[in-house]
Amino acid sequence: MNAKIVVLAGDGIGPEVTDEARKILNVVAQKFGHTFTFDDQLMGGRAIDERGTSLPDETVAACKSADAVLLGAVGGPKWDKPDAEDRPERGLLGIRKALNLFANLRPVKLNQHLISASTIKEEVLAGVDMLVIRELTGGAYFGPRKEAGADGDEAFDTMLYTTPEIERVVRLAADAAMGRKKKLTSVDKANVLASSRLWRRVTVKVLADYPELEVEHVLVDAMAMHLIRRPAAYDVIVAENLFGDILTDEASMLAGSMGMLPSASLGDVMNQHNLPLGLYEPIHGSAPDIAGQGIANPLATILSVALLLRHSLGLEKEAAAIEAAVDSVLNEGVRTRDIASTGVEVVGTQIMGDLVAEKLLN
Ligand code: NAD
Q1: Which of 105, 139, 198, 233 makes an SS bond possible with 264, Cβ 3.0 to 4.6 Å?
Q2: CATH code assigned at 265
Q3: Same domain for 326 and 356?
Q4: For position 310, what pLDDT does the model report?
Q5: What ranges make up the beta strands (E) of the chain?
Q6: Does residue 14 or residue 82 have the better pLDDT?
Q7: Are residues 226 and 264 in the same domain?
Q8: Mean pLDDT value across residues 124-133
Q9: What is the pLDDT of residue 339?
Q10: pTM score, two decimals?
Q11: Which residue is closest in CA terms to ligand 1's atom 16?
Q12: Domain boundary among 255, 275, 305
């Protein structure tokens, strides 16, 4: 297969972790006989410095004509000025919008070897393997709002949803659940919010097309509790933007470290392989506190590349091979500093990438 992958390395540890992910893609290409072409583009803080905007036009154009986009992370204290006209994060929102990425997928699978890195008890975590899907383009983050001025005492945000916005993300979640354990949990606050009542109505209607699915509707406050109390009971969870934002962060803490979790953002723009042109990134930020030291954990970005192969290129065997290689390295007791415990071998970013590459080749 031939595929064009745009790399938005971004800021802080972004370039360090995307370099390792690229290393892994090159090994996949070599081992499985594919040709991946990389196109490096600017986004975020570096783009502000070099081009005067967090999202240059040529970056958008390159992403639109790619098969998939790999992102490191953007942002850092250098660009954190409250009165700044442009911010690195604006680039991220802009590219999500340009590619119409309406669903963010976060698989949360606990690695047996890292169980001690979580703050939750081992017996509660046993068997955790879920996929949390957050709606990404609607709700309170994008609805009409009023900002209280300096002397104002009123402000509001509007959790606005339309039927098609709900339909498409619920359908995506239902399709994902069909490929897993056929269990879907839809989260809302239908006992209070009008937008949640619409969410529930539309969800029920869409899911009528999926009679094989075991479906559960859970109120968001109860969901926050269940995620900590019995996380292993869930398979696919779908939620609107704000609820999903909070729940995905909560779910990611089950796995212990930010350095381990990948994510995929998908929409309805298709690539040349007739698969979703997705954006893939680790869930962590640019970690300015450790940038340039060669100690960042590249595994979340490497696992993001596995999602890229699976969702945007349809290369399931290759995706699974990367996941198995990561597992195998961890199994041998090798760790980066953020997931280290006593009795393990601590390595830096590049060595971790090399070890995963080696496992993949063998
Ligand atoms: P962060 O995720 O960058 O860092 C939080 C903590 O986790 C830090 O101590 C960091 O060293 C550690 N950490 C994160 N990733 C790691 C890795 N791969 N290996 C080892 N340790 C890791 O979150 P933050 O400090 O709140 O944000 C820093 C910057 O990143 C901010 O400018 C923020 O806006 C930005 N950010 C960007 C994204 C994105 O690009 N999608 C997401 C979140 C935060």
Answers
A1: 105
A2: 3.40.718.10
A3: yes
A4: 95
A5: 2-10, 35-40, 68-73, 101-109, 129-135, 145-146, 156-157, 183-188, 214-219, 236-239, 262-267, 278-282, 334-335, 345-346
A6: 14
A7: no
A8: 93
A9: 87
A10: 0.92
A11: 259
A12: 255
